C-alpha cells in the first residue's frame, strides 16, 4: 500500500475552524534548517541527523549511517495495520491512539520525495532544539527506557513508534506538523490547520520571506 493511501488517515470531515492570524517568525539568525515535506494528504518534518541533539539523539542508534530522519504523526491502528477499508478510514477520524512514523533517508529529502514536495526553512538553534524536544515528548518512552517501537514501517528504514496524545478529525497529522514547526519559532497558526495543503502553503510563504543563505 502506498503512503499516499495510508495518509488518508489525515483527512478530516468537517469545516476548517475559522481563519487564523499569522504570527511573526522568531526574529533570530537562521543557524539550522528543517524540512517540511508534502506526502499526498500527509506532511512530515525532516531533520539532518548531524543536527539532532538532546534526548532525540537516542533514535540515531536505530538508524545508523543515515543522513536525515523524517517524522510524521498519524492514527495508530490505521497506520500500523495498514487497513484500507472505508470503515477503518472513518474510524481513524475518531479520537484514538497515535503513532509517529520515523523514516531514515540516505539521500536528501528533495531527492527522496521530489523538490516540488519539499520546503527547506531556516530556524534558530534554539528553535531547532524546541522542535526536537517537541518530537521527543511526542514519543512514548518509559522511564529510563527507549521509545516504544510498534512495527516496521512501510518503507525500508522506517519504523512506527508509539506516540502520546490522541489523533482525531480535528487534530490530524498536519495539525501536529504545524504546531511542532510553530514551537520552533516559525509563523504557523496555532489552530485551524487540518490539511497538507495548508501546511505546505504556509511553508512556501515562510520560505519566500526568508533570506537565502548558503547551504539551504
Describe what you observe in this structure.
By secondary structure, the chain is of the alpha+beta class. It has one domain. The protein has seven helices and seven strands, in the order H-E-E-E-H-H-E-H-E-H-E-E-H-H. A seven-stranded antiparallel sheet has the order 5-1-2-3-4-7-6. It starts with a helix and ends in a 7-residue tail after the last helix.
Features:
alpha+beta, seven-stranded antiparallel β-sheet, 216 residues, single chain, 7 helices, 28% helix, disordered N terminus
Order of helices and strands: HEEEHHEHEHEEHH
Structural class: alpha+beta
Which stretches of 5+ consecutive residues score pLDDT under 50? Answer: 1-27
Using DSSP, what is the number of strands?
A: 7
What amount of the residues lies in strands? 15-25%
Count helical runs. 7
Structural topology:
Layout: H1 3-6, E1 32-39, E2 42-48, E3 68-75, H2 76-81, H3 86-91, E4 96-105, H4 109-113, E5 118-123, H5 125-138, E6 149-152, E7 158-167, H6 173-183, H7 196-209
Antiparallel strand pairs: 1-2, 1-5, 2-3, 3-4, 4-7, 6-7
Write a brief caption for the model.
With 216 residues, the protein is α+β, with helices and mostly antiparallel strands. It has helices at 3-6, 76-81, 86-91, 109-113, 125-138, 173-183, 196-209; strands at residues 32-39, 42-48, 68-75, 96-105, 118-123, 149-152, 158-167. The protein is 28% helix and 25% strand.
